[in-house]
Every structure is written in structure tokens, then in C-alpha cells.
């Protein structure tokens, strides 16, 4: 199964990336035996310029395209953002702004965030969860928020294991039923389109 | 294969002088560009249609009629004609009129416009964009092909015993291209009718163009008009040339960096790598254009955008000179080499008339 971690951490090393890595490792542990979990990490920091260009240009550059394809093809996603101004970072949102709106439909997603204090922990519920609900992703019940103080305290490991377990279960369940990826080049036969406009069709004849 | 110029008709300040041309200057510049295209032996001039500043060409057949009077060989076309918001009755009449004045040197490209607000300006609803393109074009075809039309549709008043005038020259309607960047429905429409498909690839990576053209070719064959390789494909491309590549880059960069369509985004180098934009020597333009065939197959029409980013008219005319003298003669030769014999040329009035006569005899 393919697991993609989208990390919007900016510093190197980054606690946002660290949280993403720990969640990914926990998903691996929660998926013993049957299938290996292939993990790919998308660092949005490296894509920042291409994401901005996608806004001005209308199309994605090479590295951004590759990241979009990886995310679209993944069986599960872990998305991690630092909290900026009481919400996800602008870079984090921008990545999902330039992703096809159907790319995440039906996809299991684990939401996670990092911040300087625990006071922002509900950002998961008031910012990230609605965003992924809009994108029609299946968001696991447990979101993981890590404040600076959590890294040395008890409790974070437990939340990571619980969230990862939920994501692993959903990935196993949902990857069995192959999601339908929309083909943007699909066409409705022209005669059908033409017929839909004819007066007879509208009158229900 | 046909080569030509297409113009958007934007009024853009020249960033190196800060001067903005007047509308009159820009309109006359477009005419000068068309006349230059004929002078240097290019085949086609196509004008855009826009109904908002900073664009000037709102009345394409007026401009093309004026150009027709001053040219002898040039094919006059559009890029594009708004099939969504123009009344198909008026399109049928305007372009039939132009056919007579230009002795058949006319074709046109259907499009849906580049701005949402244009729909209400002409009393239409943008939510019906694709449906308007479908219904209006179906009516347009009948108006050109049937002398007396009874018609009823969803978007305009019914027609009873209506004859659009003048009738198409020699009873042969102008050839139609359908221009689209990302709507597979339009590729499907072009394929259904066996019309041409123009992919305006100028801001798009090659991979996207390849998929749209492949879709059109596949559906063209599906509808029995010929093999996929025989479908009628047109592509765009935008260039800036100087004898030496470095001079071209140096001169164009200040235009690129602030142009409404290019500026404030990727660098000139990134943009030229990912899109058809070529800034360099004529040889570089030749190489990049020839490479279009690698992903679009043998195609019929290549239009160049040269009056972009606020370049002064004098510079634009120099570009067309270089196209005519150094680029297009090589492209004609190279594209002809290795082109299968059963890949047709783009239809013209003469070829369509000959085909129609053959059909009558048969």
C-alpha cells in the first residue's frame, strides 16, 4: 500500500516533518505482515515556488506534478501542518488549492498539526477537518496535535499509535475496493450531448 | 502545411518606454501584421475576438474584410469566434459575406471566450457554455448547408422558413476549426463533425497538448472521417527571435517579466522550458516547432503569436520577416519530409469546392 506524507514544515529539521515521520512509522507497525507500506514524503517547502507559479500560470511544474500524482495515487495520506495565525499555513492550503478537487475523494486521510503551545490544538477540528471534508476525503477520527511541550511529555505516542491504527485500518479496507480516478479526458458521446438539447428530449417524448 | 500569425489584439504598454498604444494604433498594427504575413509568404492571419479592454478586436469580420481588400493569397481566420455568445444567424451571415468579398479565402475557429462576464454582455448564461457551443454550432451548420431552415432549440427563438444571406460562396461553407485548451467536449465536437481541432498550447506543457490531440484524433477516426493520422490538427506557438540567441533573451526579458500573461511568475527560462514559448535564434524556433510533431503527429496548421507582451510594431514586423525568410521555408521542407502521403492538407475553399463537385458527379 502506498502512504504519502504531506509535510508543510519549514525549518530543517522540522518538528512538523518529525511528526509526519512518526505517524508514518506507526502506520507501518499497524500494518503487519500482509502488505508492505511504501512511504513517500512530500515536503511542501521544496515545492513552494512551483506552487506559487501554478497560481500565476495555471499549470503545475515537474516536481509539483510528480507530488500531485503521488498524492492522487496514494492509498492513504498523512497531512501535517504547522499552525500559523490560528490555522493551517498558507503553503499547506495552497498545495491543496492547486490539487484537482476530486483527487482526494474517498481517500483515507490522517490530519496532524504542530504548534508552539497546546492552545491551538483545536485547529485540527476547526480548520483541517472541514478542508478535507470539503475535498470528500475520509478523515480518521483521531487527529494528532503536537505542541512543543508534547515532545517530552506522556500521551503523544499513544495518540500517534491510535491515529495510525485508524488510518491503517481504513487503508486496508478502502484499498480493497479500487477507487475510481476521474479521467479528465473522458467524453460523453457527442450524439448524446446533442440529443439532450433537442426539443423532443426536453418534452420527454 | 499552413503557417500563419494569430493575434490576441491586446493593448499592452511597452515596458521599456512606458508608452501605451492607442486603440487606433493597435488596430492598424494588427492590419499591418496581416499584410506583412502575406508579404513574406505566410498562409494565414487569424484575429481574436474580445469584448473588453485591454483588447481591441471586437468585430473580426470588419477587420478581416479590410485585410481581404489589401491581400490576394492570405487565408483570413479567427482565433476564436465566440460560438457561445454570438447569434449563430449573425455568424452564418458575417462569414458568408466575408467569403464572397475575399473570394473564399476564409475559415474560422470556434471558441467559448476567455472571460466569464462576456456571457451576460450578450444575454447568455455562462452555466450553459458547453451547451451553447453545441446548439449554436449545430444551427450554424444548417444555416450554411440548407437554403431554408426550420429550427427549434433551447437557447434562441425558433426559425421558420429562414434563409441566411448571402449564401456561402459556391455553396461551400467555410472550413471550421474548434479551438479548445482543456475541454474534451470540444475535441469531441470537432471529431464528430470531422472539423479541424486547434489546440492553443501556448501556455501549456506538451503532455497536456498531446493528450487533447490524441483524444481528438481517436474520436475523429471513431466517427469514420478517416484514420486518426488524417484528422485536421492546428497548434499555436509564441516566439521572439534575434539572429543570436543571447540578443533575443536580452531584448525580450524586460517584456516577458512584466507582461500580463507571462510576468511575475516563472522565469523566462522556466517558461520556455515548459511551454512552446521560444526566445532565441530562428534555428531554435525551427527545432522547437519541429518537435511539436513528436507529440501531436503530422499536423496541418501552425500559428505563431508574435505581437505579445507590448512589443512595438516595428519589432513585430521584424519577427514576421524572420519567420518568412528563415523559419517557415525550413519548416515547410522538414515537415514535408517523412509526412505520409495520406495525411491531408488543411481544407481550403478550393479543395472543399472540388470535393463537393466530385460528390455531385459521383
TrEMBL record, chain A:
Q: Does the keyword Oxidoreductase apply?
A: yes
- List each copy of the NADPH-dependent FMN reductase-like domain by range: 1-151
Q: Pfam families under this entry?
A: FMN_red
Q: Which domain of life is it from?
A: Bacteria
- SUPFAM superfamilies named among the record's database cross-references: Flavoproteins
Record keywords: Flavoprotein, FMN, Oxidoreductase
Q: What is this protein called?
A: FMN reductase
From TrEMBL, chain B:
Region feature Disordered, mapped onto this chain: 1-21
The chain positions of domain Luciferase-like read 1-295
Q: Mind telling me which residue stretches traverse the membrane in this protein?
A: none
Q: Give the Low complexity compositional bias ranges.
A: 9-20
- Quote the Pfam families the UniProt record gives: Bac_luciferase
**Keywords on this record?**
Monooxygenase, Oxidoreductase
Name by which UniProt lists this protein: LLM class flavin-dependent oxidoreductase
The species this protein was found in: Streptomyces cylindrosporus
Amino acid at each position: 500500500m502506498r502512504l504519502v506524507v504531506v509535510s508543510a514544515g519549514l525549518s530543517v529539521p522540522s518538528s512538523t516533518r518529525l511528526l509526519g515521520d512518526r505517524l508514518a512509522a506507526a502506520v507501518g507497525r499497524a500494518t503487519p505482515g500482509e502488505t508492505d507500506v511504501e512511504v513517500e514524503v512530500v515536503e511542501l517547502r521544496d515545492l513552494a515556488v512551483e506552487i506559487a507559479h501554478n497560481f500565476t500560470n495555471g499549470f503545475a511544474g515537474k516536481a509539483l506534478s510528480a507530488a500531485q500524482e503521488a498524492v492522487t495515487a496514494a492509498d492513504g495520506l498523512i497531512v501535517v501542518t504547522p499552525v500559523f495565525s490560528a490555522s493551517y499555513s498558507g503553503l499547506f492550503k495552497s498545495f491543496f488549492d492547486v490539487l484537482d478537487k476530486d483527487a482526494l475523494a474517498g481517500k483515507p486521510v490522517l490530519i496532524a498539526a504542530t504548534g508552539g503551545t497546546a492552545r491551538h490544538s483545536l485547529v485540527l477540528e476547526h480548520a483541517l477537518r472541514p478542508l478535507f471534508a470539503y475535498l470528500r476525503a475520509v478523515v480518521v477520527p483521531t487527529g494528532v496535535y503536537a505542541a512543543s511541550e508534547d515532545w517530552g511529555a506522556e500521551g503523544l505516542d499513544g495518540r500517534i499509535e491510535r491515529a495510525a491504527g485508524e488510518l491503517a485500518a481504513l487503508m486496508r479496507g478502502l484499498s480493497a475496493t479500487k477507487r475510481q480516478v476521474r479521467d479528465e479526458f473522458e467524453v460523453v458521446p457527442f450524439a448524446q450531448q446533442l440529443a439532450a438539447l433537442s426539443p423532443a428530449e426536453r418534452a420527454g417524448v | 502545411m499552413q503557417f500563419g500569425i494569430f493575434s490576441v489584439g491586446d493593448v499592452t504598454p511597452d515596458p521599456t518606454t512606458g508608452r501605451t498604444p492607442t486603440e487606433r494604433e493597435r488596430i492598424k498594427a494588427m492590419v499591418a501584421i496581416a499584410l506583412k504575413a502575406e508579404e513574406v509568404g505566410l498562409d494565414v492571419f487569424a484575429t481574436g475576438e474580445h469584448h473588453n479592454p485591454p483588447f481591441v478586436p471586437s468585430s473580426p469580420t470588419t477587420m478581416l474584410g479590410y485585410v481581404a481588400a489589401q491581400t490576394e493569397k492570405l487565408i483570413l481566420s479567427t482565433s476564436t469566434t465566440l460560438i457561445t455568445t454570438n447569434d449563430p444567424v449573425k455568424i452564418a451571415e458575417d462569414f458568408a459575406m466575408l467569403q464572397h468579398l475575399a473570394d473564399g479565402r476564409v475559415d474560422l475557429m470556434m471558441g467559448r471566450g476567455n472571460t466569464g462576464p462576456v456571457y451576460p454582455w450578450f444575454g447568455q448564461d455562462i452555466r450553459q457554455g458547453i451547451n451553447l457551443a453545441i446548439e449554436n454550432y449545430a444551427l450554424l451548420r444548417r444555416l450554411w448547408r440548407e437554403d431554408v431552415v426550420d429550427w427549434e432549440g433551447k437557447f434562441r427563438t425558433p426559425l421558420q422558413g429562414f434563409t441566411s444571406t448571402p449564401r456561402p460562396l459556391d455553396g461551400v461553407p467555410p472550413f471550421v476549426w474548434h479551438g479548445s485548451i482543456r475541454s474534451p467536449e470540444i475535441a469531441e465536437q470537432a471529431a464528430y463533425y470531422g472539423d479541424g481541432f486547434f489546440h492553443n498550447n501556448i501556455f501549456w506543457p506538451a503532455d497536456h497538448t498531446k493528450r487533447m490531440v490524441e483524444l481528438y484524433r481517436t474520436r475523429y477516426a471513431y466517427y469514420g472521417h478517416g484514420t486518426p493520422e488524417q484528422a485536421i490538427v492546428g497548434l499555436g506557438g509564441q516566439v521572439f527571435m534575434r539572429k543570436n540567441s543571447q540578443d533575443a533573451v536580452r531584448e525580450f526579458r524586460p517584456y516577458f517579466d512584466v507582461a500580463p500573461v507571462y510576468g511575475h511568475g516563472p522565469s523566462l527560462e522556466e517558461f520556455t522550458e515548459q511551454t512552446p514559448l521560444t526566445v532565441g535564434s530562428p534555428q531554435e524556433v525551427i527545432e522547437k516547432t519541429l518537435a511539436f510533431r513528436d507529440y501531436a503527429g503530422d499536423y496541418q496548421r501552425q500559428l505563431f503569436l508574435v505581437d505579445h507582451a507590448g512589443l512595438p510594431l516595428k519589432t513585430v514586423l521584424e519577427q514576421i520577416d524572420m519567420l518568412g525568410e528563415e523559419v517557415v521555408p525550413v519548416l515547410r521542407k522538414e515537415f514535408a519530409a517523412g509526412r505520409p502521403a495520406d495525411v491531408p492538407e488543411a481544407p481550403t475553399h478550393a479543395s472543399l469546392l472540388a470535393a463537393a463537385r466530385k460528390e455531385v458527379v459521383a
